[in-house]
Amino acid sequence: MAAPRELLAGLLGGAKAAGAFSARLEAPAAGLGLEVAGVGPVRLPLWAPQVKRLISVARPALFGRGEETLSDTSARDTWQISPDQINLTGPPWSSLLSSTLVEYFPDALGLPAATRLRAEPHAMLVYGKGQLWNFA
């Protein structure tokens, strides 16, 4: 079986040069529900007491550098909640993550027409006051 990096390189090998580095699609928050194990329903906007509860069930966020997975607060100072702790609720999530949405991104990114993506949560990041993601 090919390594994930090799699989990604194969997928991107046929990418159109006109594709963007990133793509974004906004959706209204109304009707979207989010529950976190040990916290319960998450309401927006977030207030300090709820952020503290979210941090209490999180761990320091990791990041990748090459083949390594690291924890370094000088590079990424935030908290991470794993996808098994997250439950997306409400009818809009299923339509938002439907094939229509997933088909938008390959075209926006200039990926080959045959590319099929799937939407799945990776992690929920929680930034406390003064925390950062340092791109330098």
Write up this protein.
The chain is 26% helix and 21% strand. The chain has one domain. A 3-stranded antiparallel beta sheet has the order 2-1-8. A 3-stranded antiparallel beta sheet has the order 3-7-9, covered by helices on one side. Strands 4-5 form a two-stranded antiparallel sheet. The protein is an alpha+beta fold and 136 residues long. The protein has 4 helices and 10 strands.
Radius of gyration: 17 Å
Beta content comes to 15-25%
Q: Report strand order across the widest sheet.
A: 2-1-8
Question: How many separate domains make up the residues?
Answer: 1
Secondary-structure element sequence? HEEHEEEEEEHHEE
Largest sheet: 3 strands, antiparallel
Distance between the termini: 34 Å
Total E-strand runs: 10
- Protein structure class: alpha+beta
Low-pLDDT residue intervals, each spanning 5 or more residues: none
Number of helix segments?
Answer: 4
Mass-distribution shape: globular
- Helical percent range? 25-40%
